[in-house]
Design a protein that fits this description.
single chain, 451 residues, alpha+beta, Cytochrome Bc1 Complex, Chain A, domain 1, 2 domains, eight-stranded mixed sheet, 15 helices, 22% strand
């Protein structure tokens, strides 16, 4: 690995070269450049001149969890409207500009963040960045576009109320976080979405979107010297900082409960989970390996082998870690016939306990670790994925050397670490279990929250 800083045309560039190994292809170096524009806008850049494509991603703290009470779904609605007309271009004109220039532009809002993405051919990059700038700084929020997007959101909300997976997820979060923004639907409810006004949309943009709160990743056929002025052109007019907000820590409130949502369907959807680890916990890497053995390793995981392969109880079963800004969870899910739900839950709990009580072997540790590190290169399949990875690394404050050092973190995980983490965190009796369907062999202990 090499690192050096250079000054080029008024911009600061810190370059980190790392090797990414892809299956059946030679190792190639990915050079991460920290680009700071003359106006002080920072981005991480990976140049790749293989194809004439440029991709940009950005993310900033402040997603659906910041929506005002009674206006839940605001961040989501803004994300659906920023590309529906800006500046002198109404919705149709804006979309035509995107299509005529082969530009892909979109925005999204999760619980904790508001994000945007841009993809363009090299020859149209100036036009692409100009349109991105317009969307961020001069969105029109015309009545026709607002009502059309509102109708689409309301249709999605209505549809989700009949979708077992959506119901299960919503019930899990609402039951565990009834007094926290995490307990609300990110997209809002019909009543709250119906109450959102143009003033609300404009206020969100003016108060929440700020250049100093963004992390930006860029990849593709563009140099640092080319990118620097485009960063100022695109983001330079935004406020330096967003309006301050405060969100409290979220503590699960339904640990150990079994919640059944009755729905007349032939199979049941199961969501389960309890507390997990925040991303900055030193034991997060050990927990990642542990989860791979438990339920994150697809066909090789214990849950898959015991629930599906040996007993044929479920169509799918899995587990994963979900560290959020204000909570950390260890989650899982399954889909099974109604007649097999009780047995499936029993086996899941049994495997949760076995993982805690019976140490894994060195062979299992090595296999899980090799799979985790060996599959990492697949995340760099295209410029958009690379830009997204650069954003994720910055968002999680992992450091510009993370790609180079990631394998070392997993190589440092020992059997003692794995077994210590298992005993500390895995608790089958603490699992909140939500079932949507007509499950047999399940006795609910708590009524579902509305969600």
């Amino acid at each position: 690995m090499t690192a050096y800083t250079r000054i080029l045309a008024g911009l600061t560039v810190l370059t980190i070269s790392v090797l990414v190994f892809a299956v059946a292809t030679p190792a190639r170096a990915i050079e991460i450049q920290r680009v700071v524009s003359p106006g002080g806008v920072e981005a991480w850049l990976v140049e790749d001149h293989t194809l004439p494509i440029v991709a940009l991603r950005f993310s900033m703290i402040g997603g659906a969890a910041t929506d005002p009470a009674g206006k839940e779904g605001l961040a989501n609605m803004v994300s659906g409207l920023l590309d529906e007309g800006a500046g002198d271009l109404d919705s149709q004109s804006f979309r035509r500009q995107l299509e005529d220039n082969s530009i892909s532009l979109s925005f999204s809002a999760s619980q904790d963040s508001f994000s945007g993405s841009l993809r363009s051919l090299k020859r149209n990059q100036d036009k692409a960045f100009d349109l991105f700038h317009l969307a961020l700084t001069e969105p029109r929020f015309d009545d026709e576009a607002v009502e059309r997007i509102r109708a689409q959101i309301l249709t999605g909300i209505a549809r989700s109320k009949n979708d077992p997976s959506s119901i299960a997820r919503r019930t899990f979060w609402a039951s565990n976080f009834p007094d926290h923004p995490y307990g609300r639907r990110s997209g809002g409810e019909a009543e709250s979405v119906g109450a959102i006004t143009k003033t609300d949309l404009t206020t969100f943009v003016n108060r929440r979107i700020a250049r100093g709160d963004m992390v930006i990743g860029v990849a593709g056929d563009i140099s640092a010297a080319e990118l620097a002025p485009l960063l100022d052109t695109t983001f330079g007019d935004l406020p330096e900082r967003a309006e301050a907000f405060s969100i409290g820590t979220a503590t699960p409130a339904a640990l150990g409960e079994i919640i059944v949502v009755d729905q007349d369907v032939p199979q049941s959807t199961v969501v389960f989970g309890h507390r997990g680890l925040p991303r900055d916990d030193p034991d997060f890497y050990a927990a990642t390996v542990l989860n791979h053995v438990l339920g994150g390793g697809s066909f090789t995981s214990r849950l898959y082998q015991e629930v599906r392969e040996k007993r044929g109880l479920a169509y799918s079963v899995f587990s994963y870690l979900q560290p959020l800004d204000h909570a950390a969870l260890w989650l899982g899910g399954a889909a099974t016939e109604n007649s097999a739900v009780g047995q499936s839950i029993d086996v899941i709990r049994s495997e949760w306990a076995r993982m805690r009580d019976i140490p894994i072997t060195q062979e299992q540790l090595d296999a899980a670790r090799d799979n985790i590190t060996g599959s990492f290169a697949l995340r760099f399949s295209n410029t958009g994925a690379i830009a997204g990875m650069l954003v994720a690394i910055q968002r999680q404050d992992l450091g510009i050397n993370y790609i180079d050092e990631r394998s070392k973190f997993f190589e440092a995980v020992t059997l003692e670490d794995i077994n210590r983490i298992a005993k500390k965190f895995l608790d089958p009796d603490a699992l909140t279990i939500v079932v949507v369907g007509k499950p047999e062999g399940v006795k609910p202990t708590k009524k579902p929250d509305a969600g």
